[in-house]
Amino acid sequence: MPTPFPLKSVSGSLDTLTASVRTPSPGALPPRDGAVLQSVYDREAHHMRRMRDGSAPALWYDWVPQAALSVSGREHGRLGDIDHFTAEPVAIRGTGGTVVPQGPGTINISVLSRHPRHPGIRETYAALCEALRQGFAAMGLETTTGARPGSFCDGDHNILLEGRKLVGTAQRWALAPDGGAVCLHHCVILSGGSAETLCARAEALYAHAGRDVRYDRDAHSAVPLDRAALGAAMEKPLRAYIVRSEEDRL
Questions:
Q1: Residue 83: per-residue pLDDT
Q2: Which are the catalytic amino acids?
Q3: How far is 165 from 118, CA to CA, in rounded Å?
Q4: Is residue 224 a part of any domain in this protein?
Q5: Is residue 2 part of a domain?
Q6: Most exposed residue of 3, 89, 135, 163, measured as fewest CB within 10 angstroms of its CB?
Q7: C-alpha angle 227/192/58, rounded to 5°?
Q8: Does position 8 have pLDDT exceeding 80, yes or no?
């Protein structure tokens, strides 16, 4: 199951910080596997609101929801009426980007971090991508960062493996009353599922909206990833990222 890392204090070194592992209730984070995607997004938005006033901790977790298509609020508005799309559920997320297939063949990592001041969008992307790359390096995977034309939800801050998209990332920010900021990072990792299936699912929503969008199947990584090994490899770099965020050291 997903492993959360709520950090209770940033007054000491990383080794002195405590991390609690708990069994999630239906409305808690991290979500259970197979959770309804929109429900998870709603819980994350609620957690961000609590982080703004200091009543919830920074944390990260990995998770796999039920099969659904994820679309940003902006892209949802651009696509128009998709309420009658019946092939699978469509969930609207607070982070940016375009359509992303979720469920089998993908693993999500969510990172919710608190910052004494807004460090900058590109700076935060760079720091998080470096943490992810450190985790993959611990698994023996040499990765790079950059765009991969032809991939779904392409952007400048993908993690690439052998030139193919392995991870897509997106952010959402909220300013806190004390002048700080809270960031939600969504990281969708391709874990070895069929690129044909994943791409076709995303293309189907665009086709329903009357848009001819085609993706390059070869732009997507198909390397199988073990979820337990992934979570173990990401623990140290993502915990360190959260600590540096709270200490304004990105």
A1: 86
A2: 153
A3: 28
A4: yes
A5: no
A6: 163
A7: 40
A8: no
Measure the CA dihedral 75/250/111/88, to 10°.
20
Q: Residue 76 domain-assigned?
A: yes
Residue range 25-44: mean pLDDT, rounded: 90
- Which residue segment(s) compose the domain that 40 sits in? 31-246
Nearest-Å Rg of the Cα atoms of the chain is 17
More confident residue, 3 or 193: 193
In a domain, 20, yes or no: no
CA end-to-end span of the chain: 29
pLDDT at 241 over 70: yes
**What domain count does the chain have?**
1
CATH number for position 222: 3.30.930.10
According to the model, what pLDDT value does residue 208 have? 96
Residue 207's contacts (CB-CB under 8 Å, 6 or more residues apart) are 213
58 Cβ neighbours under 8 A, 6+ residues apart: 6, 7, 51, 112, 113, 114, 242, 245, 246
Can you give the pLDDT at residue 27? 66
**Tokens 């651009």 correspond to what residue?**
78
Could you give the CA distance from residue 95 to residue 121 in angstroms, rounded to a whole number? 12
